[in-house]
Amino acid sequence: MRSEPARPARILCVGALTLDTIFRLDRLPDGPGKFLPRDAVQIAEGMAASAAASARRQGAEVWLWASIGGDATGARLVAELETEGVDCGYVRRVEGAKSAIATIFVDMQGERIIVPFYDPVTQADPEALPFADASRFDAVLVDVRWPGAAARALDAARAAGIPAILDADVAPAAVLEALLPRATHVIASRPAAAILCAGTTDAGEAVIALARRSDGFVAVTDGGAGTAWFDRAAERVRHVPAPRIVAVDTLAAGDVFHGCYAVAVAEGRPPAEAIRFASAAAALKCQRFGGRLGAPDRAETLAMMESYAS
Prior knowledge:
By secondary structure, the chain is α/β, with parallel strands linked by helices. The protein is built from 9 helices and 13 strands.
């Protein structure tokens, strides 16, 4: 077992912060009607926020740069993330605008329907970075939901010589194309990779295509099928399997993966080990209902990582 780092990793997460209402149903709706859930929860979530909370549970020091409305929902979102130990001092509040919300249905197999709302005013591009020097962080992780801030943060991370990590999820092609060359680490979902790679659906083929277009580390996540990544030294695709589990709720699994991957990279773990660390955390989350609330702590993650890698 690898020794623990001398100090906590310092991670900046940039992007989405939403109020999610999650309903667990026997099956997903297939038409109009009234559907009675088995369970429900309302939490502060969103890609960057969930990644930030997950990284914090791994022992990292974490800052969140997101944008919210100057409403009661925004105040609630910040309070919940601060309870997790995430520093929300960089969160921008836009008076007169609405904070992001989403309604999510999850079925008994862990599949889901997501209906999000983002106020364009809240998501307007920032005029500047909220910090003077990105070198105070060990890694910067951005998502695709606040592209203007993501671009600024990735550029600042590159300039500071620290990992600039892009969580490349489904988004307009123009957004993905603008962020791709700015990142030193691109971790794309298979659907996002298909957007970037002209419809390529095979994860291995997508990794090769992305490697041709990026000078950094590239990987494509494919849920329970694991993660493909490109080994530039050997000039070949490698694969890290995912732990075999029965999924209860896959919501926020990708966010947990990316937050924990950022921690692993900041700690200096090599690529395959960083992916195993992130995969272990995401697998544990998938076995628990409640979105990011199912994210594991460090001890749980390391135990899962050791058991499925052996």
